[in-house]
Amino acid sequence: MNFSYRIAYVFWRNMISYKRFVLTTFLASLIQPLFYLITFGIGMGAYIGHFGGKPYLYFLVPGVLITSVMMTASFECMYGTFVKMVHEKLYDSLIATPVSAEDAVAGDIAWGAFRGLVSGGLMMIVAIFMGILPVSLVSVLLLILLMVFVGILFSSLAMIVTAFAPNFDFFNYYSELVITPMLFFSGVFFPLDKFPGWMKTLSQFLPLTHAVAISRAIFNGTYTRGLLFNFLVIFVLEVIAFFIGVRLMKKRLIK
Amino acid sequence: MKPIITARKLCKKYGKFKAVDHISFDINEGECFGFLGPNGAGKTSTVRMIHCVSPLTSGTLTVQGMAANIDNRAIKQNTGVIPQEITLDNDLTVRENLQVFAHFFDIPRAEAAKRIAGLLKFVELEKKRDSKIDQLSTGMKRRLLIARALLNQPKIIIADEPTTGLDPQARHLIWQRLRQLKSQGVTLILTTQYMEEAQQLCDRIVIMHQGRILKAGLPAKLIEEEIGREVTEVRAPADQDDRLLAALGPLACGHERVGDTLYFYCRDGRTLMKKVLELDLPDTVHRPASLEDVFLKLTGRSLIE
Lengths: 255, 305
Prior knowledge:
The structure holds 2 protein chains of 2 kinds.
Chain A: H1 7-18, H2 22-48, E1 50-51, E2 54-55, H3 56-87, H4 90-94, H5 101-129, H6 137-164, H7 169-185, H8 197-204, H9 207-220, H10 226-253
Antiparallel strand pairs in A: 1-2
Helix pairs in contact in A: 1-5, 2-3, 2-5, 3-5, 3-6, 3-9, 5-6, 5-10, 6-9, 6-10, 9-10
Chain B: E1 3-14, E2 17-28, E3 32-36, H1 43-50, E4 58-63, E5 66-67, H2 73-77, E6 79-82, H3 94-104, H4 109-122, H5 138-150, E7 156-160, H6 168-183, E8 187-192, H7 195-201, E9 204-209, E10 212-217, H8 219-226, E11 230-235, H9 241-248, E12 254-258, E13 261-266, H10 270-279, E14 284-288, H11 291-299
Parallel strand pairs in B: 3-8, 3-9, 6-7, 7-8
Antiparallel strand pairs in B: 1-2, 1-4, 4-5, 9-10, 11-13, 11-14, 12-13
Helix pairs in contact in B: 3-4, 4-5, 8-11
């Protein structure tokens, strides 16, 4: 593995290109989570009433927040990276400079995480405007850190998919078979404790479950010892996914 | 002259396919060295190893005294690459493309601005500096690729088929710029399938085929040795070969039948032409021998796919 400070240059390149799309991506990354908030939060929330002494939206917002980080980071490192690699051959010209393949891929993973943070951050702002606030300023800062942390995980996982992708259609498998089920089995919209045993076990294997649990605890200031386990799961998975993602992409880029 | 690049028994395999098969060569400082060959001859694989984006399978390759290897950032720092494919950043403007690349080479901002202004002038793209890439013609894109390859003021420039798909004006402009660079002392490595391009630019060439070097030398000398000075092409059906060869064969130093044409290679074609006039063969071309003849003789006239 051959990393250097040039990771930052790759990130910077993405930033320059981003300024042309920034408004459209704001809209795109807001719309879906916003629908979840409105339909589930306000529509369903009216029937559900209170969860642990607080309105349903306090349960829902931290979940949707982290889901939108997952979506944006994943899609950036699938479609975004694929276009740069296959259609525009940008990676080919990048690695002909002192930037290494590892720098280029890590720069894009960092970028995916940043895009995730932007989406999650926007959601947080919307929630704040709806009057759903994290318990303290410290919570806000911790949530920002968590979004970056979770963003790196899902960017890295997406890189592994991209390393194998022959075309765009390939990404459908990942988003339909992994991302979408995760949305429903990770406790984003409702607590997992009423699930039958096997479903509970299954959900423990989904990284989003752990990310949502941490997010919800930070948002509401309800810390428990179990969070350490959630954190550890994400951390270990993230380190593994990052190195495998970089390695596989390098194998694809350098022949 | 001292070599700036040395390759010994260089090999490149993709799975079982041998793209480069035990080739050895030296490239001298300040010369223009050409790799000629049909598609799939191994030219691009060879230059990709030189600029450290492709690992060697075996053999040794030294560039500026350093071992070439995919992780050798020092070689990449001193090399400019004009790629075969247009790999510009479509999301960025002309100037931003160069700015981002200057960054990759650790060129300070003020210095980069100065170099970018100079390079845009050099490739005649000053007026397009704020255009998006899709607003450029193919020739302009190729020129921008040249400017991009020069940002780091490289000692070695690798041009991988730099004029593919260009009109004659654009092609000549690029040739001029490449010659200008050579006159400034840059070592130029060119791969091409256009023989005219090799003749225009190269001091020395190697002709590659199926991963091997078939011939190496000066372009003019190769023509002289392999073909002679002149070529006479007689278009006539094959059933006339006996008659034509009896009359013309002794006057040429070699001949070859390909499709509808009989090629005669000569040192001095005047006597042969007199005979052609006597025989009254109307469909005849008499021309100087070119690198293309050498190329076709060595790599075969059949299609390579």
